[in-house]
Design brief:
heterodimer; A: 2 domains; 10 helices; 19 strands; about 20% helix; B: alpha+beta; PmbA/TldD fold; 12 helices
C-alpha cells in the first residue's frame, strides 16, 4: 500500500524540513495505488495494478527557487533531495513573480475518501466487469470497457508552518456496446468516490439500450437545431469553458476579455438560468480543501444567474491588482431544474437528442468556438417523441453562445468528462440553434 | 484524485501537464546523475529475478521493463523564466501471460524482492481476469536477441547543454518578439531521454537510450480596440535528435513566403517572422467559405496524415480494441483483404517506418523486444497493410510483429502505438512554386492548428497557423478564420500532386494520446508539399455577447 496516514506523512515531512538550510523550504509527499481492467470484444484485453509514491522538495533563496524529488525514503536520501533542491535554487534565475510561502491555515477535513473503493482488488474488479459482460453477451452485442479505481494521498509542509493532508478515492467505469456488423454503438460512463454507488450492470444496460435504438440511423441535413445534451455530452462541451482566470482576461486574451480593455466581470454573459459554482463539500462531488498554493478551497460562485460573479486570481496577480487571491475552481457544479430527460424530450417540437460528444477541440479561443462530433446515440425528436436515430454530425459551436441559447435544464447529476476523466455535477440541457456543420459516417 | 488533479493541486501545474511522459511521481535529479545509466549487468540480474518469479507463479510468457525516464523542461514567458526542472522516473513494469490472459503490474521498488513481488502481482491480475474467459493470447514468434543495445544517433546530448544556454536562447527569442511589437510570448524547450531495458522469457536483454527534443514558442498580438487577439506558434518540429537541431544551418532552411525547416531549426529567425505574421493575422481578410484547392505545407500536412492515415491504419482500432475510447476505424479488414480499396489517388504512397533517422518513432527495438522496420501501408492509393504488434500479427497473416509496441513509462502497460507514418514524395520533379502556379482558386496552409476527427476517422476538420489566398496561380494575401472539412477517403482521392523529395520534411507530435488509462507517445510524419482539389473550407469567425 502506497498510502501514508496523516501522522506518518507529518513525521516524514518534519524530518525532511529539518535538513533545510534555505530561506524557505516546502516538502510534499504524494502517492497512490491504482488498479484497472480494460476489455474489448467481450473479453479482457489488458489489466494492471500500479503503486507509486514520491517526495518533492522546493527550496528558495530570495526569489530563486529550485525543486527536486525522489522515491527513496531513508535518511540519507531525504537529506540528498533537500540538498539537490538547494543547489538547483542557487542556479536558477530570479523569478520576479515569486510569492513567499504561506504559513499555517485551517483546512477543513475533506470528504474525498471512501473505504469501499480503497478495498477493491483484482478479483472484485473482475467481478464487476463480469456483470457488464453478462449483459452484453445476452444482448448479442460486443462490449469494450474500462474499470479503474485509485486510492491516493497528498501532504504538504513548509518552513513557515503550513501542513495539509488529504486522502481520496475514485472509481471510473465506461462501456461501449456495438453490434458485430459495426452498424450501431451505445455508451455509458460513471464516476464515483464510493464504489458501492457503481452498478456496472445498469450502466451497461443503458449502453445496450442506446445501441439497439440506434440501428438504421438516417442522414438528415446539418444546420441549426434545438438539441438536448445529456449530461455526459454537456460536461465535455462545457469543461472547455471552466477556466475563469482573471490574468488572461485582463491581458486581453480570453473569452472573458472586454473590448477596449478590462474583463467581463459583473456582466450578464449567459442566460439567467445559468448558475455555476465550486464547493468541495458537496457530498456528490467532494473535492480537496486546499491547493498547492497553500490556500484553502471554499465554496465559490463563478456564474450567478448568467452574470460573471468571480474570476480567479493567483497570489501574484492578486497582489499586483490589489485584490484578494482567489484559487481557480476545485470542482464544478452547475445548477439544474426539476425536469427529467423525458420531460425535456416531451417539451421539444423538433430537435436532436445527443448522448455523447467526441474529439472536441478549440477552434478560436477568443469566442471559445469548439468543434467536435456526436457519437454513440443521436436521435431525432418530433412533437415530444424520439422518432428515429440519426447519423452523427460535426458541430462548430461556442459554449458561451450555447448557454445564451439555453431553453431548459433538467436534473443535475454526477457526470464524467470522456477526455479528462474529471467529474462534474451537470444537468441535461436543451439548447436552441446549436450549429451542426456536416455529417459523419462514423458509428 | 486522479493523476492530473494531483499535478494541478501540487502546483506543478501547466508545466507538468504540458510535458509528455512526465510521471507525476517522477523524481528530479541533477544532470550528472542523469547521465550515468544504470549498469546493464545489474538490470539483467534484476530482470531475471522478475522473469523467474513470473514463471514460478505460472506465467507462460513474461517481459520485464526497467525504465529510467528523464525529462528536462525550460519554460519562459516574455523576460522571465517560469520553470527549469529535471525529472526522473525510475521503476519497473512486468507483463505476463498466465492462463492465456495478459496481466500487468508495476512498482518503483527496483530491488530483486520488489520485482519478484510485482511479477507475482502481475500473474494474480492475469489469473483473476482469465476467469472471465476469452480466447487465449496468441503471440507471433520472436527470437531472443541475447544482450544487445541501441542508441538514438545524436550529435549533442541536450541534457549536457548548460541550462544557461537554453535560457539565453529562449529569452533571446522572446526579446526579438517583444522588441518587434508582440504583446506576449511563451517559449519552451522540452527534452526527453528514455533509458530502457527490456528482458523477456524469449531470451532478449535489450538496453536502449532514446533521445527526443521539442523547442517551441507562441507569440500573441492583441488589438484592444477591437477586443481581438491572434497567435502564431513556432514552425519547429519535435525531433528524435539531440541539441544539434537548434544550431541553424542555411542548407536546412526552406525559403518561400516564410522560412521552414528540415533537420536544423532557427528559432530566432522563425520568431521574427512569427511576430510580424501574428500582426498581419489581426487584419487579414476573413475567408469566404466554399470549395478551394488546398496546397498543404509539410508543417501542416503531418497532422492531417497523423489523424486520417496514421490512426485508421492502427490494427487495434480496426479490430475493436479501442472502441471504448479512441474509437474504431473505417479501414475494416474486408477493405484490406479486397486488395483494391482506393484509400487515395495513385499519387498517395504511405509507409510505416520505425527506422527513419531524426524521427520521433525511431528505435532499435520496440517495447516488446521486436526489431524495427519499414513497410508499405498505402501503395499507389490502395490499402495494403496496417500497424501491428505480436498478439495481433496472426490476424493479418503476418509471421512476425511490425514492431509497433510502446509504453509511455515503466508504470504503463505497452500496447500498439503508431510508427512514423509518412507520405512519400512525388517521383517527378516538382517545386512548391510550380505547384502554386497552376492553382486557380486555392488556400496555401502552413503550420498546424485546431484538429478534430470522428471515432472511425471519416469526417475531419483542420485549422492551421498561416493561410494564404491563391488566385490564378499567385499568392495574393493572407486569409484568416480558415478551417477545412472533408471525408478522409474523398480527401486523399482528391490528392493531385505531391512535390518532389527536395521539399520533404518531418513534422510530428510529442504527445499522441491513446488507451485507457491514457498514454502519450511521440511520432513523426514526413511529406512534401501536397495539393488537394476542391476541398470544403469554412469560416470560423464567431462573436460572443
Amino acid at each position: 500500500m502506497a498510502i501514508y496516514t496523516k501522522e506518518q506523512a507529518q513525521a516524514l515531512l518534519k524530518k525532511v524540513l529539518s535538513y533545510s538550510k534555505a530561506d524557505e523550504c516546502e516538502a510534499s509527499l504524494g502517492g497512490g495505488d491504482e488498479g484497472n481492467v480494460r476489455y474489448a470484444l467481450n473479453a479482457v484485453s489488458t489489466a494492471g495494478d500500479v503503486s507509486s509514491i514520491s517526495l518533492s522538495v522546493t527550496s528558495v533563496y530570495g526569489k530563486k527557487a529550485g525543486s527536486a524529488s525522489i522515491n527513496e525514503f531513508d535518511d540519507a536520501a531525504l537529506e540528498r533531495v533537500v540538498r539537490r533542491s538547494e543547489e538547483l535554487a542557487q542556479f536558477a534565475p530570479e523569478n520576479s513573480e515569486y510569492m513567499p510561502m504561506l504559513g499555517q491555515s485551517e483546512f477543513k477535513e475533506a470528504i474525498t475518501y471512501n473505504a469501499n473503493t480503497a478495498a477493491m482488488t483484482p478479483d472484485s474488479r473482475a467481478e464487476m466487469v463480469g456483470k457488464s459482460l453478462a449483459i452484453t453477451k445476452e444482448a448479442k452485442l460486443s462490449a469494450a470497457g474500462f474499470l479503474d479505481n485509485s486510492t491516493s494521498f497528498s501532504a504538504v509542509m513548509n518552513s513557515k508552518g503550513l501542513f495539509a493532508y488529504n486522502k481520496s478515492t475514485d472509481v471510473y467505469f465506461s462501456v461501449t456496446t456495438r453490434n458485430d456488423a459495426g452498424t450501431t454503438s451505445g455508451y455509458a460512463a460513471r464516476g464515483f468516490t464510493d464504489v458501492s454507488k457503481l452498478d456496472t450492470a445498469s450502466a451497461t444496460r443503458v449502453a445496450t439500450m442506446k445501441a439497439n435504438a440506434s440501428i438504421g440511423a438516417k442522414a438528415i441535413e446539418p444546420g441549426k437545431y434545438t438539441v438536448i445534451l445529456e449530461p455526459v455530452a454537456a460536461t465535455y462541451m462545457l469543461e472547455n469553458m471552466f477556466r475563469f482566470d482573471a490574468r488572461s482576461a485582463e491581458e486581453g486574451r480570453s473569452f472573458l476579455s472586454k473590448k477596449g480593455g478590462g474583463t467581463r466581470l459583473g456582466e450578464q454573459l449567459m442566460d439567467p438560468k445559468v448558475t455555476i459554482y465550486s464547493d468541495p463539500f458537496n457530498p456528490d462531488l467532494p473535492g480537496p480543501t486546499w491547493g498547492g498554493d497553500g490556500l484553502p478551497r471554499e465554496k465559490t460562485m463563478w456564474i450567478d444567474k448568467g452574470v460573471v460573479k468571480n474570476l480567479s486570481y493567483s497570489r501574484f496577480w492578486a497582489q499586483k491588482k490589489g485584490v484578494a487571491p482567489l484559487p481557480g475552481p476545485s470542482n464544478i457544479i452547475m445548477e439544474g431544474g426539476d425536469a427529467t430527460l423525458e420531460d425535456l424530450i416531451k417539451s421539444t417540437e423538433r430537435g436532436i437528442l445527443v448522448s455523447r460528444l467526441w474529439y472536441i477541440r478549440m477552434v478560436d479561443p477568443q469566442s471559445l468556438l469548439l468543434t467536435g462530433l456526436t457519437r454513440d446515440g443521436t436521435f431525432y425528436i418530433e412533437n415530444g417523441k424520439i422518432k428515429f436515430p440519426v447519423k452523427n454530425f460535426r458541430f462548430n459551436e461556442s459554449p458561451v453562445i450555447m448557454l445564451n441559447n439555453l431553453e431548459a435544464l433538467g436534473k443535475q447529476e454526477r457526470s464524467i468528462s470522456v477526455e479528462s476523466y474529471r467529474s462534474y455535477l451537470i444537468p441535461p440541457m436543451k439548447i436552441r440553434d446549436f450549429t451542426f456543420s456536416s455529417l459523419s459516417d462514423a458509428v | 484524485m486522479r493523476r492530473r488533479d494531483f499535478i494541478y493541486l501540487t502546483g506543478l501545474g501547466a508545466a507538468a501537464t504540458a510535458l509528455p511522459n512526465l510521471s507525476a511521481f517522477g523524481k528530479s535529479i541533477d544532470v550528472q546523475d542523469a547521465l550515468n545509466p544504470v549498469d546493464a549487468k545489474i538490470k539483467k540480474e534484476l530482470s531475471d529475478a522478475g522473469l523467474n518469479a513470473a514463471r514460478s507463479a505460472g506465467a507462460t510468457y513474461a517481459d520485464v521493463r526497467i525504465g529510467r525516464y528523464l525529462n528536462q523542461f525550460v519554460i519562459t514567458r516574455e523576460n522571465r523564466v517560469l520553470n527549469v526542472a529535471n525529472t526522473e522516473s525510475y521503476g519497473v513494469g512486468i507483463r505476463v501471460i498466465a492462463n492465456g490472459c495478459w496481466g500487468f503490474a508495476a512498482t518503483n521498488d527496483v530491488t530483486k524482492d520488489g520485482i519478484a513481488k510485482t511479477a507475482k502481482r502481475a500473474v494474480a491480475v492475469a489469473k483473476a481476469n482469465a476467469k472471465l474467459g476469452s480466447a487465449p493470447v496468441q503471440l507471433a514468434p520472436q527470437k531472443g536477441y541475447g544482450e544487445v543495445s541501441w542508441k538514438t544517433p545524436i550529435e549533442k546530448n541536450t541534457f549536457e547543454v548548460p541550462i544557461k544556454e537554453k535560457v539565453d536562447l529562449l529569452l533571446g527569442a522572446n526579446a526579438i518578439a517583444m522588441g518587434s511589437g508582440a504583446n506576449f510570448v511563451n517559449s519552451t524547450i522540452f527534452a526527453v531521454n528514455e533509458q530502457k531495458y527490456f528482458a523477456s522469457t524469449d531470451g532478449s536483454y535489450i538496453d536502449q537510450d532514446i533521445h527526443r527534443l521539442f523547442p517551441s514558442f507562441t507569440v500573441t498580438k492583441i488589438d484592444p480596440t477591437k477586443g481581438s487577439f491572434e497567435t502564431r506558434s513556432a514552425l519547429s518540429s519535435p525531433v528524435g535528435m539531440g541539441y544539434e537541431y537548434l544550431n541553424p544551418l542555411a542548407s536546412e532552411t526552406v525559403g518561400g513566403i516564410t522560412p521552414r525547416y528540415k533537420n536544423r531549426y532557427d528559432m530566432l529567425e522563425d520568431i521574427k517572422f512569427a511576430t510580424k505574421q501574428a500582426g498581419e493575422k489581426l487584419t487579414a481578410k476573413s475567408v469566404d467559405p466554399g470549395k478551394y484547392d488546398l496546397v498543404l505545407d509539410p508543417s501542416h500536412l503531418w497532422l492531417t496524415i497523423h489523424e486520417s492515415v496514421g490512426h485508421p491504419t492502427e490494427l487495434d482500432r480496426v479490430l475493436g480494441y479501442e472502441a471504448n475510447y479512441a474509437g474504431t476505424s473505417f479501414l475494416t479488414l474486408d477493405k484490406w483483404k479486397a486488395g483494391n480499396f482506393k484509400f487515395g489517388s495513385d499519387k498517395v504512397n504511405v509507409v510505416g517506418d520505425k527506422l527513419q533517422v531524426g524521427s520521433l518513432g525511431a528505435v532499435g527495438y520496440d517495447d516488446e523486444g521486436v526489431g524495427t522496420k519499414k513497410w508499405d501501408i498505402i501503395k499507389n492509393g490502395v490499402l495494403v497493410n496496417y500497424q501491428a504488434i505480436r498478439d495481433q500479427a496472426h490476424i493479418i497473416g503476418l509471421k512476425e510483429s511490425q514492431g509497433c509496441c510502446y509504453a509511455q513509462s515503466w508504470q504503463d502497460v505497452q500496447f500498439q502505438r503508431m510508427p512514423n507514418v509518412s507520405l512519400q514524395p512525388g517521383t517527378a520533379k516538382l517545386s512548391v512554386d510550380e505547384m502554386i502556379k497552376n492553382v486557380e482558386k486555392g488556400v496555401y496552409i502552413i503550420g498546424n492548428g485546431s484538429f478534430s476527427i470522428d471515432q472511425q476517422r471519416y469526417n475531419f476538420q483542420f485549422g492551421g497557423q498561416l493561410f494564404y489566398e491563391i488566385k490564378e496561380g499567385k499568392i495574393v494575401g493572407m486569409l484568416n478564420d480558415v478551417a477545412y472539412q472533408a471525408n478522409t477517403q474523398e480527401f486523399w482521392n482528391s490528392c493531385t500532386q505531391v512535390c518532389d523529395e527536395s521539399d520533404y520534411r518531418l513534422g510530428g507530435s510529442f504527445n499522441d494520446g491513446k488507451g485507457q488509462p491514457g498514454q502519450s507517445s511521440a511520432v513523426s510524419h514526413g511529406s512534401s508539399t501536397t495539393r488537394f482539389n476542391g476541398v470544403n473550407v469554412i469560416n470560423t469567425k464567431r462573436k460572443i455577447g
